[in-house]
Amino acid sequence: MSYREKLKSLREERNLTQAEVAKVINKSQQGYNHIELGRAELKIEDLKKLCRFYGISADIIIGLDKN
């Protein structure tokens, strides 16, 4: 699973909208949508914010830890 698919899965598992997650990383809904779709890259600082938000390790998002 790509990190983009993992981000979408995490968001959907928690019944969050793209707009809600976008606020966490100070992006618009469209900007976050572009990350999930592969039209934009996820910045390391945004990855850190999402890890804190979801309470998980970056290893899970990037696929080093399959949990």
In short:
With 67 residues, the chain is mainly alpha-helical. It contains five helices and no strands.
Q: Can you give keywords for this protein?
A:
single chain; 5 helices; globular
Strand content: under 5%
| Number of contiguous helices | 5
What is the correct CATH architecture?
A: Orthogonal Bundle
DSSP strand count: 0
CATH uppermost class = Mainly Alpha
Q: How would a textbook summarize the main sheet? A: none
Measured as a percent range, the helix fraction is 55-70%
Q: Spans with pLDDT under 50 lasting ≥5 residues?
A: none
Descriptive report:
This protein is mostly helical and 67 residues long. It has one domain: lambda repressor-like DNA-binding domains (434 Repressor (Amino-terminal Domain), Orthogonal Bundle), CATH 1.10.260. 64% of the residues lie in helices and 0% in strands. It contains 5 helices and no strands. It has helices at residues 3-13, 18-24, 29-37, 44-54, 58-62. Helix 2 (18-24) packs across helix 3. The chain starts with a helix and ends in a 5-residue tail after the last helix.
Please describe the topology of this protein.
Elements: H1 3-13, H2 18-24, H3 29-37, H4 44-54, H5 58-62
Helix pairs in contact: 2-3
